[in-house]
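call fold(seq) -> tokens
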Amino acid sequence: MNERITTCAIVIEDSKILVAKRCVGNTTNGKWEFVGGKNRYTESEAETLSRELDEELGIKCEVGRFLCSIDFVNNDILYHLKAYEVKLLEHSFSLSVHSEIKYVTKDELLSLDMVPSDFSLTKKLIEQGIF
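ret:
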């Protein structure tokens, strides 16, 4: 089985966490997620997150500490989803693959229709007291 690393940004401001809703019609079909994406084999995980936030939100960021990870299988590929604390250096978003972006509370986060892997990651972040 092939393996891939994928990363996501955990952005917390004023006790709320940043999530984005994918446009309808792509693979996640309108579900909520943490912003991030697949690692290119020549990149560090921090470089992946910086690139993905620039591509998906049109912003610069500062990648902080590693928080936690989960593994999941999709289309016969084993993904290692790694979450990092991220500080946004800009707050003027230019959405390219998302239809909406917002900050939510922990309770609101748990009620969103999230991508399954990100929902599993959410539970782990809460269990570890990160959010």
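The helical segments are 45-57, 106-111, 116-127.
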